[in-house]
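WARN no homologs supplied; continuing
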Amino acid sequence: MKSYNTIEQRIDILQSRIETYKEEIAVLQAEPKSNNERIIFKFIETGSTGKTKDFVRELGIKSPRDSLYSSGDVTKLVKDGADDITPALLEIARALASARNKNGPSC
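OK structure emitted
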């Protein structure tokens, strides 16, 4: 949490957070434009590479290695990204991955 010295500074900090939340909401409300974005959305939804892998396999999407998707493929996609993934969406997924909780995703 940022420190502040006045009420006005506190208000500025809170308004900045509101704008950040609005931007994140807009990104999450957008429809996925590629299979890779679908995978990232599912990872954000579940917070689990295993559940995301299962989802991708159900869709019949192959990994870049032309085999069934693995949890490692999901991790690699989140870490390395891809040209067809919106940078803001990838940023959300990376933040989730670095703050992952065993009980599922959290805000």
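The chain has a mean pLDDT of 92.
OK
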